[in-house]
Specification:
The chain has 432 residues and is α/β, with parallel strands linked by helices. The protein is 29% helix and 20% strand. Strand 7 (124-128) and strand 8 form a beta hairpin. GO terms for molecular function: flavin adenine dinucleotide binding; monooxygenase activity.
């Protein structure tokens, strides 16, 4: 008996679906939307509950950093009365709940996928905590932010210092009294530092290399201008950095209170303590790289460069818009401080906001590079029947966001449909 026949016999008692989607966030549900429209049987397998990340891994004052009009899940665009506002956490959850209810996807919740492996017969064996399945196609929609990054030096912090990862932070009241060290100044770090600062907490911020952008420029939201400039339609292969853009840290800005800039220099004027990158802990003192000035200057350069590109667009299109101006620093570090006495600072909490690493170790497929990132072209991997969706810059800037995931999902499902059509036609062709 052939290997394929043995595999087929072994699978005979295992439930089968044409497509299994791993992950029940907006990406996986968008795939389900197009599969349902195409009449293709499928199953969404979710480790927790649908869209649980938005419910459980966001702080209380979290809100979108892109305008509501960019929320464009398939068949479920934003229809509220504030398209240029920024939905808060509970409003985002309600928006997603509406999508879930409208979609009615076939879902298996509270089920962890343990292994995905292609079998000799071409099917995929999908082992889960709630039984085994097989599928002709597997779409990985679990995102790329799996394992929080916390440096080993965290193990050497005093036991009486409370440590949190950004996904576990909720509000200033949940932290012990005392000063807070926020490590990292990407979107999460900058917004959490602001949240604590506005609550009157003493904040020390280890500033990284994240860029920043303006909220508004020349009378409009910067996102509106960039949309008109078709930046959000640019495929990754046309970006100046090519695939390297996937490693970029997101620009920090906020939609809080109707949207505004996040200016770390202004926070410093108001009492926030800024340092460069956190490097080590020695003899009770935190050690920092002397790169605060460079990091602030580079973030401001990006801010001004984006605005200058908008200015050039306005000029080319001869648009009547209010005048703009270049950002001028409101504060400068007098010197680079490279050491901070931990006990003397009064720091009682540390919040790590330095990102996540992907973990696709449960996928047995030769499609990953040395950093554990899947090789793909617009979500289509070199291994037949295996796809990814919802990753940053999978295809465009919006691929990992509400704005662009529908386009990516439709493309992946079109590829699945083409593969199924070719597979059904193959026997007839061979017979001929």
């Amino acid at each position: 008996m052939s290997n394929a026949s043995l595999a087929s016999q072994a699978h005979s008692d295992v439930p089968h679906r044409s497509v299994i989607i791993v992950g029940g966030g907006q990406a996986g549900l968008s795939i389900s939307y197009y599969l349902k429209a195409a009449g293709i049987d499928h199953l969404v397998i979710e480790k927790a509950t649908l869209a649980h990340t938005w419910r459980t891994q966001r702080w209380d004052t979290f809100c979108l950093v892109t305008p509501n009009w960019q929320c464009a899940l398939p068949g479920h665009p934003y229809r509220g009365d504030d398209p240029h506002g920024f939905m808060k956490k509970e409003e985002i959850v309600a928006y997603l709940d509406g999508f879930v209810e409208k979609l009615g996807a076939p879902v298996l919740e509270h089920t962890e996928v343990k292994r995905v492996q292609r079998q000799p017969d071409g099917r995929y064996a999908v082992a889960t905590s709630n039984g085994d399945w097989t599928a002709d196609h597997v779409v990985v929609a679990s995102g790329g932010y799996h394992t929080p990054i916390v440096p080993r030096m965290a193990e050497r912090l005093p036991a009486d210092i409370s440590q949190w990862q950004s996904s576990a932070y909720r509000n200033p009241r949940s932290l012990p009294d005392g000063a807070v060290l926020v490590v990292g100044s990407g979107q999460s770090g900058a917004q959490i530092a602001e949240d604590l600062h506005l609550a009157g907490r003493k904040v020390y911020l280890a500033v990284g290399e994240a860029p920043r952008c303006a909220r508004f420029h020349r009378g409009r939201d910067v996102v509106d201008w960039l949309a008109d400039m078709r930046y959000y339609d640019m495929p990754v292969e046309q970006h100046p950095l090519r695939e390297g853009v996937r490693d970029n840290t997101n620009h920090y800005v906020t939609g809080r209170d109707g949207g505004r800039d996040i200016d770390l220099r202004r926070f410093a004027q108001e009492g926030m303590e800024l340092y460069g990158r956190l490097d080590d802990l020695r003899d009770g003192c935190l050690q920092f790289t002397p790169n605060l000035t460079a990091n602030l200057d580079n973030a401001d350069d990006t801010y001004n460069r984006i605005n200058a590109s908008i200015d050039a667009f306005i000029d080319r299109q001869r648009i009547d818009a209010p005048p703009g101006e270049s950002y001028q620093p409101v504060w400068q570090p007098l010197r680079e401080r490279t050491s901070l006495d931990l006990a003397a600072s009064g720091i009682t909490s540390v919040i790590w906001c330095i990102g996540f690493t992907p973990d696709f170790s449960w996928i047995d497929a030769p499609v990953f590079n040395g950093r554990g990132y899947p090789a793909h072209t617009r979500g289509i991997t070199p291994q037949a029947g295996l796809y990814f969706i919802g990753l940053p810059w999978l295809h465009t800037w919006g691929s990992g966001r509400f704005s662009g995931v529908a386009r990516d999902a439709e493309h992946v499902v079109d590829e699945i449909r083409a593969s199924m059509t070719a597979s059904q036609a193959a026997p007839a062709s061979l017979a001929a």
